[in-house]
Design a protein that fits this description.
By secondary structure, the protein is of the alpha/beta class. Helix content is 41%, strand content 13%. The chain binds zinc ion.
Length: 232
Amino acid sequence: MTRARYLLACAGWMLFLPGVIRNCEWFGRIQKSLPTRSRELLLTIDDGPDPRQTPQVLDALAQAQVRAVFFVIGKNVEAHPALCRRMVEDGHSVQNHTYSHSLATFWLAGPGRAADEIQRCSAAIQDATGRRPVRFRAPVGMANPFVHLAAEERGLGVMGWSATGHDGIAQDPIRVIQRIRQQARPGGIVLLHESHLRGMHGGERACTLSELVNTLKADGYTFTDRLDAGTH
Ligand SMILES: [Zn+2]
């Protein structure tokens, strides 16, 4: 390998290595908590809307009187705009989680694809709800410098998380709740999922959500719907 090729290969690794590290901030800030010392949490729910899960999840949130942030997938919004509208009507926040949610390749996205995925998702949300998102979350938190730039150019702050029960793949609600409880801190951002494709099925997600909220409330936590809670 020539020296030039070696340097090029190193530069490539430097560029895309952070893409496979979740919530990596090498190339841009990622909001992983709220600036507060009070026992407030932000509940975020990814990968919807999903007609098999979203209605029960929204019912569970209404019953618990908790507002959440939904990071939605643009193509799902186009397929189920009424569910996305209900999220907003119920008082929740709807934010950008790419148009197609390509787990395998999004972290490799070049500037054109990164911009397209983010733009199309924001357009789908605006068409369905009349509101423009202000936050972006990459699929499984894997991004790269082009993704950060594309989000920032569209006025989107990148949001990660600080507590996850791995419910996107896990089947056991008790373990999911235990993991999140152990990671809960003042100002924490909790990650949950609502897709039927991976992890829990049917009404399990809604039941897990209700149980998690009750557990965290018993631990003295409240839930905020302000993306910048603690700064005012
Ligand atoms: Zn996702």
